């Protein structure tokens, strides 16, 4: 049976510790989904088993790809609780926040919507004046 994984990656900035049997490395998660994370600042060989430590909470993973200073980690089970999942939900909510209303600046003479001729010529959006 194939597990359906979320592909929506959300940009985040979460300092973490990546731990293996032999090493402990500091890194930063820069994008995150329920199914995995991209970590920068450290690297492990592809197919390495590791755990991500955040605030005393551990998420296990497997390195899927690795470059000089970053790697992609896939989680065996989708995130559904814990501090990492909470950070993901907060980042998603921040993306959905609507932009606050901002009033338009006062119209300048000759600008769009003005009937006065502009000193630079033109009356806005191809409208001919004069």
List the helices and strands and how they pair.
Elements lengths: L9 E10 L4 E10 L2 E5 L8 E6 L2 E10 L3 E5 L8 H14 L34
Antiparallel strand pairs: 1-2, 1-4, 2-3, 3-6, 4-5, 5-6
Structure explained in plain terms:
- The protein has 130 residues and is mainly beta.
- The chain has a domain at 13-95: Thrombin, subunit H.
- It contains one helix and six strands, in the order E-E-E-E-E-E-H.
- It has a six-stranded antiparallel barrel.
- A hairpin with a 4-residue loop joins strand 1 (10-19) and strand 2.
- The N and C termini lie far apart (73 Å).
Give a concise summary.
This protein is mainly beta and 130 residues long. It is built from 1 helix and 6 strands, in the order E-E-E-E-E-E-H. The chain has a domain at 13-95: predicted glycosyltransferase like domains (Thrombin, subunit H).
User: What structural class do helix, strand and pairing data support?
Assistant: mainly beta
CATH class of one domain: Mainly Beta
CATH fourth-tier homologous superfamily of one domain: predicted glycosyltransferase like domains
Question: Could you describe the largest sheet, including whether it forms a barrel?
Answer: 6 strands, antiparallel, barrel
According to DSSP, the number of beta strands is: 6
Order of helices and strands: EEEEEEH
Mean pLDDT across every amino acid position? 82
Proportion of residues in helical segments: 10-25%
Beta-strand content: 35-45%
The unreliable regions are none
The termini sit apart by 73 Å
Instruction: Specify the number of helices.
Output: 1
Gross morphology is elongated
